[in-house]
Amino acid sequence: MGTKLIIDTDPGIDDAFALALAALSTDVDLLGVTTVFGNVSLEATTRNARRILELCGRPDVPVAAGAARPLVHPQAERAAHVHGEDGLSGLSDTLPEPTRALEPSDAVSLLVSLLEAAEEPVTIAPIGPLTNIALLLAAHPHVKPKIARIVIMGGGLGTGNTTPAAEFNIYSDPEAARRVLVDEDVPCVLVPLEITHRCAVSTAWLGELAASGPLGATLEKLTASYQKLYHDELGLDGIVLHDAVAVAEAIKPGLLRTEAYPIEVDCGHGPARGATVADRRPGRRAGTTVEVAVDTDLDGLREFLLTRLAGTR
Ligand code: RIB
Ligand code: CA
Prior knowledge:
By secondary structure, the protein is of the alpha/beta class. The protein has helices at 13-24, 42-55, 80-83, 107-117, 131-139, 168-172, 174-183, 193-198, 203-211, 214-221, 224-234, 242-251, 298-309; strands at residues 3-9, 28-35, 63-65, 122-126, 147-153, 188-191, 201-202, 238-239, 256-261, 263-265, 276-278, 290-296.
């Protein structure tokens, strides 16, 4: 029954869309959701993830809380100015309270138990800092054969958003990102800012989603401040659903065209901390590579997102 998927997330407005995309897709077996600090605190991201799943009618999906802080150094900054103090534009409390209890185990324990029980390899889609995934791979290497691939929203090929060099998820825990993208040998897909920005959706697209029904209307209502930020800062008539682009690829392999590059992550403390450096030199040395998403059918992807989120697929 379709893609077996676990999402690791820090909701987050675009995380909310990504979670809804997976929760509403009938060709996805959403085995579980794990939460991590990031846009806002772990307490808030966990509360938001549970409420979003309830909103989507998916109390069957277990949620476990993970890392509250990065592996080594304190998180430099959160993103409440983007996602609101509660992580969902100040509207988290308007979402339904979860009817399923939070898992008693932590995120890494839930990941291990789901992977061990899986009868076929599982896709993991981290759409926040990579702390939980780094811990999983370091402490439980025996589960690697049960991971089909890790589809990560993060990084940039020359641009950043949190700093001129670094994208937020990587910048929040560069050491964790380096463990996953450089040190490990699990197949990874990296969905960086360059492609997610090109997949921006318009206010007209959001209007269609809002008109599709109560769930679409609720999701669209979460984006008011997000729309203002993208308009004021980038002059955009719409928003960038970074995480939903990555989860779309996790659900539909090949939706994004990728190119294989060795990746390095700057874990120094200079101006490039958190930068993801892809070695695209023609004569580069052989070594571990990451599939970096570089292109897609932009309108096709937007249509894929809308039909899934509108519940018409
Ligand atoms: O840079 C975009 C990423 O940072 C997204 O995952 C967004 O939710 C924030 O966490
Ligand atoms: Ca996120």
